[in-house]
Design a protein that fits this description.
Blueprint: E1 2-5, H1 13-25, E2 27-29, E3 39-40, H2 41-44, E4 48-52, E5 59-61, E6 64-66, H3 73-90, E7 96-98
Parallel strand pairs: 1-4, 4-7
Antiparallel strand pairs: 2-3, 5-6
Helix pairs in contact: 1-3
């Protein structure tokens, strides 16, 4: 599973805990009998790739994106590192993967089915 993680400027540990709980428990896969929406990444022992993505909190100002809703650099880096620690505790450390915060990374994503979900913690 790939989780693009946007951090809102007002996010707190409450929002972090909600998203961690949802990510590891989200039932997106079939079970052994073919019943849809029955198994989570945790149930199946799948890896979760977390990618920090500040651009998720953009608004358009004309033809230019504005990122004032995203948490600032140093603060969001610490928040993201804390998020990674929490999700590793909630699941298994060796199943959580991540890239380099703030780096220009090339991530290749192959969807296995037509499922893309957006999780938003109400803040």
């Amino acid at each position: 599973m790939v989780a693009l993680v946007g951090i809102h400027k007002d996010d707190t540990k409450v929002e972090m805990d909600y998203i961690v709980r949802k990510l590891v428990s989200l039932r997106m896969w079939e079970d052994e009998s073919g019943r849809r929406w029955a198994k989570s990444a945790k149930d199946l022992g799948l890896e979760v790739l977390c990618v920090s993505q500040f651009t998720l909190y953009h608004v358009m100002k004309g033809n230019k994106p504005d990122f004032h809703l995203a948490m600032g650099g140093d603060q969001s880096k610490q928040f993201y590192l804390n998020f990674l620690e929490e999700i590793k505790k909630a699941y298994k450390e060796d199943k959580i993967k991540d890239g380099v915060f703030g780096a220009n990374m090339q991530v290749e994503l192959v969807n296995d089915g037509p499922v893309t979900l957006e999780l938003e913690a109400v803040n």
